[in-house]
Amino acid sequence: MQKRRTAVLLLLTLWYASVNGQLLKRDSIVSSLTIKGDWFMAYQWIDPNLNNNAFKLKRGYLTVENKFNDIFSARYTQDITIDDEGDDAGNVELRFKYCYLKAMLPDAAFFTHSYIVAGLVHRPWMDFEEHVNGYRVQGEMFLDRHKIIGSADFGLTYVTLLGGKLDNDYQENVSRSYPGKYGSVAIGIYNGAGYHALENNNNKTVEGRFTLRPFPEKLPGLQLSYNMAFGKSNDSLSSPFRVNALYLSYESRWVTLSAQYYTGKGNMSGSVTGMNEGYSLFGELVIPNTKLMVFSRYDYYDPHALTSYEVAIAGVGYRFYRQNRILFDIDWNNRNGIKRVYEVALEIKF
Question: How far is CA 273 from CA 145, 152, 266, 268, 303, in A?
Answer without folding.
Answer: 17, 22, 4, 10, 9
